Amino acid sequence: MPFTPAPWPRRLRSQEWYGGTSRDNIYHRGWLKNQGYPDDLFDGRPVIGILNTWSDLTPCNGHLRELAEKVKAGVWEAGGFPVEVPVFSASENTFRPTAMMYRNLAAMAVEEVMRAQPIDGAVLLVGCDKTTPSLLMGAASTDIPSIVVTGGPMLNGWFRGERVGSGTALWQMSEDIKAGKMSPGEFLDAEQAMSRSSGSCNTMGTASTMASMAEALGMALSGNAAIPGVDSRRRVMAQLTGRRIVQMVKDDLKPSDILTKDAFENAIRCNGAIGGSTNAVIHLLALAGRVGVDVTLDDWDRCGRDVPTIVNLMPSGKYLMEEFFYAGGLPVVLKRLSEAGMLHDDALTVSGTTIGEEVAGAINWNDDVILPVEKALAASGGIAVLRGNLAPNGAVLKPSAASPHLMKHRGRAVVFEDIDDYKARIDDDALDIDETCVMVLKNCGPKGYPGMSEVGNMGLPPKVLKKGITDMVRISDARMSGTAYGTVVLHTAPEAAAGGPLAVVRTGDMIELDVAARRIHLDISDGELAARLAAWTPPAPMFTSGYSKLFVDMVEGADTGADFTILKGNRGHEVPRDSH
Q: What is the DSSP letter of 504?
């Protein structure tokens, strides 16, 4: 249905704070004037909150203060009143036990910042993995006009003439150390080469994936996802975004107008085409829950099953985000999907036009980076959703990052009860394991870790690596970094800590994986499985107070987005009662 802009001018919500002569209006307006703002800025023009996730401890977002100034310039130019607001910055690089534990907290904080303050529209200034979904979730809950601008990826890493991909090289090199192929000194020499400019991961990791998801959903201007963080065009994008949000407020173009079922299906198909992170599954499920759109794991499998992976980027391919930008970026991918009949062309975007119109003129400048369909990295690149007695509520696998010869496999389980058990035993040459085995990791899901850390891509045992083996089937209720690779079954639900079947797998059990059939099966009888589950006892609570306890008590399973039930469907930007 075509979008109809709201009439303009009209009274905006910020005027409940600033527009009038009451004691309360003077209280709010007068205090803000101590920053040197003149009277006419409070005349009813749109007040734009620039929600900034800059932090020195979020390296991916370390340059966002500079971008915020460009957003402000755009807001001023369009006749708005910009106010920069720092918000919770969940850093994947530094947060323990995992940034995922704090995504929901960040979303809650953003929601309340937007609802409780005089903001008519918001620019979501994001970059690092969890900052993009958390701000989108908060904005979706308030349904105030909002637009995303990301910090962009780092420049290519280079080490001894080879591309070094953020994260991907780390996993490769750490395995090479254990296999005796690389010395510790060489590993340290490569460290600086991995991060040679401002920006987020230069692979198609979770940060670049979520930037792509924001664009595919229609929540960012076309072309935003791939511009490198240090490229001058990233600053231009920030300034244009500042201009655009002012008109969005005037038109009353809200997240609920954009985040439709069609938009989510576009994003799911896009994720398959780019070889995107499995983390996008959890984040988009959570975001859909915030806007009340019915998106499930079945939609991920249905929409992604026939989508070829055509973006030749690490970890699935060989190039990095810098080359993806030069090749034409995400608009080219979306145009390819459109031409294949895999895009809802009439889905609305923050530009006020449809996504089909936005990408119609996109040109591919490098067929080796954005591949022709007949040369796709994977013919079926979408996220595979597996089910069976081991994962009644589903598990996921990324085909484009997996080994074809392991996509159908039956092997003996080698079980690690938690991540500490894994770390204590994996390097022991006495461990009874070979490349035909299936590595099983328990108690690393939303409740179990807690927060569902990125440990699902367990490193292989050294004695297997020394044989030249680089992949084995691995199964867990954990996540893995979008920069990682391998035949890794993730997000197994229900998780072990919640009493899912994963909790009762034993070393020596046989497990069957059949990705084509979307099947994951524990080879024991139904009666034996029921008896094991009946005898299972839940682990003792790790926390008795604070946010950690709230998280464990309230978090849902990975199969529905690992959000808090209480935060779903709580949409609206009503003006809170004034207390003065």
A: G
